[in-house]
Amino acid sequence: RMQRRLNRSLNSFHDHKLLALVDMSGFDPREVTVTVKGRKVKVFAEHEEERTTVRGKEYSYRSITRETSVPPGVSEGEVTYSL
C-alpha cells in the first residue's frame, strides 16, 4: 500500500527532478518547516499531544529532521517543495 502511494507521488513529479520524498504522515502542515540554506534542504517537523485519561494526563512528542544536499548545477532558488 505504501509502495503504491509512493509510486503515485513519484509519478506526479515527472516534469521535475525529485530530490527527496519524506513521509510526513501524522504532522499538520503548520508543524513542518522547510529551509534551504548553504546548499542544504532541511525538513523539520515537531508534533506534541496532550490527552487526559482515567489515569491522568499523557503526553506524546514526535519530531523528524531530514537534511539533503542541493545537487551541483541547481541553485537554491530553484528548490521548491509541497506537502
TrEMBL record:
Keyword terms: Cell projection, Cilium, Developmental protein, Differentiation, Flagellum, Spermatogenesis
Protein name as catalogued: Outer dense fiber protein 1
Known function: Component of the outer dense fibers (ODF) of spermatozoa. ODF are filamentous structures located on the outside of the axoneme in the midpiece and principal piece of the mammalian sperm tail and may help to maintain the passive elastic structures and elastic recoil of the sperm tail.
PANTHER family according to UniProt: OUTER DENSE FIBER PROTEIN 1
InterPro entries in the record: A-crystallin/Hsp20_dom, HSP20-like_chaperone, ODFP
SHSP domain segment(s): 21-80
Main location: other
